[in-house]
Amino acid sequence: MSLSEISCKFTENTLDEIIQKAGGTKHTSYKFGECFKKGDSYLSRVYRLSVFGVNETNGSTVEVHLICKGMPDNVARRKVFHSAVFFRNEINFYTKVVPAWEAFQARRKPANPFTEYPKCFASYCDGENDFIALENVNFRGYNAPNRQDYISLEDAILTMRTLGRFHGISLAFRALEPEVFEAAAKGLEETYYSEAKRQWYIGFLGLACNVAKDAVEKTYSGTEYETIAKKFLQPTPLYDDLIKLVSSDSPLAAIGHGDCWTPNFLTRYSKDKHPEAIIIIDFQLARRASIGLDISFFIYSCTSEALREAHYEQLLKEYHQSACALIADLGADPTAVFSWEAFQEEMRQFARFGCGMGIESLPMSLIEDDEIADLDDMKEDAVLTDVWDIKPFKEQRKRERIAQIFKHAIDQGYITN
């Protein structure tokens, strides 16, 4: 395997740049690691790469372990998944948002700065040969759980605390240095819900609505949940609403992750199997938007009905307390920036987003490995529904998992008649 498989712009000079960012002077060798399996990434080809080097001044050796993402070879795959857009957005996150965050924190000097993301060592963006080389945090003990499993309460609490810190830095940044914050946020673009994306996505959204309507009908037949959910699950007005939700301004708008399902929260566990830290990965869908989008996405895509029924308010409080702690640490007043009452209102206004996005993320989570299409066999005239041709689930447990998010959202008043 050669470096050019990542990108023709990923060269020996790139390896030197990586080693220099890690404190060395030049690379001496590199080694590719185990390949990723089918379905691990739709938007890119992903590689594990270890780079070895030296510091010629003091004779020390340097090792850097990377996850490298490159554009798909298959041109149809690039077109269907809008790979260039998603690459540009993640690269802009790392080259515009992260440096602004880091400079802001350097000015504010918090005791516990937000650093829960992989370091970026190199990137290139021209729409054709894009790549990004990120720290492989597996080497620090962080790993992804099974995408089909529910998250435990302990994991959910830590995820909400981490998400609170992720949003908290933006809320403090926006309160204290609004112009600098907005300049950084302008580097991000909406990758999913805009008029420009409608024709690309609306066909798939129709399939997702059909899967969700079938799930609700067979789980809550004849109830208000069926009536209200079916009204919500109309592709054109739903897409209109999703555009509104991602583009609406709010005092609680922040840099959002955009893809808050379990595999993007890599977790490190203690020796006795308790979660102790999380690194957030994959910022290709990052956007400036309400914090309610990320929170509702996570809640509805990753937690069980039993966990929501017993611990929903606790999870929101864990998130809120964590965000407020970082806001205070950065020198802003959390009671003015992020009151509990304002947070509750934000969820009432924006949390239905989690159902709109959940009807995509849940079928993608629940699909079996042998049901995933071979992405590199895609034909030139392929469209999104050729790859994500999802159909109603035969298994009752899978239908219930989708239907139950609507029950919760309706019970909370997030979706109404």
Automatic annotation (TrEMBL):
Give the SMART domains listed for this entry: CHK
| The keyword Ligase is annotated on this UniProt entry | yes
Q: Gene3D superfamilies of this UniProt entry? A: 3.90.1200.10
- Write out the entry's keywords from A to Z: Ligase
Q: What is this protein called?
A: Isoleucine--tRNA ligase
| GO MF, one example | ligase activity
Q: Gene encoding it?
A: ileS_1
Which residues does the UniProt record annotate as the domain CHK kinase-like?
A: 132-329
In its keyword annotation, does this UniProt entry include Oxidoreductase? no
UniProt cross-references to InterPro entries, sorted A to Z: CHK_kinase-like, EcKL, Kinase-like_dom_sf
